[in-house]
Design goal:
The protein is mainly α. The protein has helices at residues 2-23, 32-46, 60-63, 84-92, 105-112, 118-146; strands at 66-71, 74-78. The protein has one domain (2-146). The chain contains six helices and two strands, in the order H-H-H-E-E-H-H-H. A hairpin with a 2-residue loop joins strand 1 (66-71) and strand 2 (74-78). 24% of the residues are buried.
Length: 147
């Protein structure tokens, strides 16, 4: 697990450098553009699907995802809250196999982020598919109760 933590730190550092490059020259209110980038990354991570995003069983971990800031020209993305030990284990343990989501979900979301909005479009498409599946599931349950 130590190797995974080291790799996570390296990935975060690489993603932070990318974001810092984008932030160069941003002053005053424009710093809120960093918040938008953070929100885009979080949207992608929360749009869990097979092999991507935060692992989902009951949705508790996904519900703890937060974007905070900007504060001192920084935006913080986090998962966990009271479930922090669980969030860290799900993030760092590369041995866990997830039906929905992935290990290193936050780092991978940072790595997937693209300036042109493609990562957001993919996340929205995944969320749309999930919503459609849920609607069909509820319609089938309602029809079954009526029979």
């Amino acid at each position: 697990m130590a190797a995974a933590k080291r790799k996570t730190k390296q990935s975060f550092a690489k993603a932070a450098k990318q974001i810092e490059k984008l932030a160069v020259g941003i002053h005053g209110k424009a710093i809120f553009g960093l918040r938008l980038i953070g929100e885009e990354i979080m949207l992608d991570v929360k749009a869990s699907r097979s092999g991507a995003g935060v692992p989902v069983d009951e949705g508790t971990l996904r519900s703890t995802g937060r974007v905070e800031g900007p504060k001192h020209d920084e935006v913080e993305l986090s998962f966990g809250g009271a479930a922090a030990p669980y969030a860290l284990e799900q993030h760092e343990n590369m041995e866990l196999r997830h039906t929905v989501g992935e290990a290193r979900y936050l780092v991978r979301g940072l790595e997937r982020w693209q300036r042109d909005g493609a990562s957001v479009r993919r996340a929205l498409a995944a969320l749309s598919l999930d919503v459609k599946k849920e609607i069909l599931k509820r319609q089938a349950a309602t029809a079954a109760r009526r029979r």
